[in-house]
Here is the input.
Amino acid sequence: MLEITLSIPDACRQFDIIYICAKLRTRLTRWAQATRSRLAAALGLTLALAGAPVYADEWTRPDTLRESAFAVALALDWAQTRWGAERQDQVHEGNRLLGSHPSIGRVNTYFGLAFVLHAGAMQFVPRDYRAAAQNGSTLFELGVVIGNRERGIGVSFPF
Here is the structure.
């Protein structure tokens, strides 16, 4: 029977362990930073909502129409952002929350949350200010969409 024994010098073994530990530490640090920022955002949102007075005035037909207009503008922004995410070598995203080269999944998650959070937040805006808040949000989104279009950004719908 032939027996082969490989001998690894102690210096190499030590280097491998240091390298593996450094890689593991880097991954754990990144995970901890991402988790910490998510927890801070969730805590901030929870405290903001807990300390805010609850209005929830009755939702009217004009409120629904304004929210629908916002949804259309946001859907166009979403489609433009997806278009840019598909062409990361040509386009850089301007939204800092998404990063300069977001994935399609990140774009979809961001805009899906934006739809839900905006509609939910508008429920708690007093009726006297709700129209202004909805109109302002819609105008902002339309400004983004028009600016993107002027820069040659197309649209990419997922269907």
